[in-house]
Design a protein that fits this description.
This protein has 99 residues and is an alpha+beta fold. The protein has one domain: Transcriptional Co-activator pc4, Chain A (Roll), CATH 2.30.31.70. It is 32% helix and 40% strand. The protein contains one helix and five strands. Strands 1-2-3-4-5 form a five-stranded antiparallel beta sheet. It is elongated and about 65 Å long. The termini are far apart. 7% of the residues are buried. The mean pLDDT is 88.
Length: 99
């Protein structure tokens, strides 16, 4: 996507969505929570999660991650999800053993 400018507190912010990775959800208002690679003020692109208007002219506050931070976040989420899956599987396994 092309570079765009947004003004916050009198400062101009330049951003470019260099790669759209995916949509996490779409709200009834049409705004979508997205994972993108975004270059802020001409810097290196970073992983970015935030809500965007349909035309990507407006955005909410969001979170940005370097590649190493994104890898660590993925590791943490995978570990946590696995532990949750094991908690859900345990009762089912107990039922099977009783039968």
């Amino acid at each position: 996507m092309a570079m765009k400018n947004e003004s916050r507190n009198g400062e101009s912010i330049t951003y470019e969505i260099t790669e759209h990775i995916g949509v996490l959800r779409v709200s009834p208002s049409g705004w979508s929570r997205e994972l993108n690679l975004v270059s802020w003020n001409g810097g290196a692109a970073r992983y970015d999660i935030r809500d965007w208007s349909q035309d990507h002219d407006k955005m909410s506050k969001g979170l940005t991650f370097s590649a190493s931070e994104a890898r660590e976040l993925c590791r943490m989420l995978a570990s946590h999800a696995q532990a949750e899956d094991e908690e859900w599987e345990a009762p089912a396994e107990k039922k099977k053993k009783r039968a």
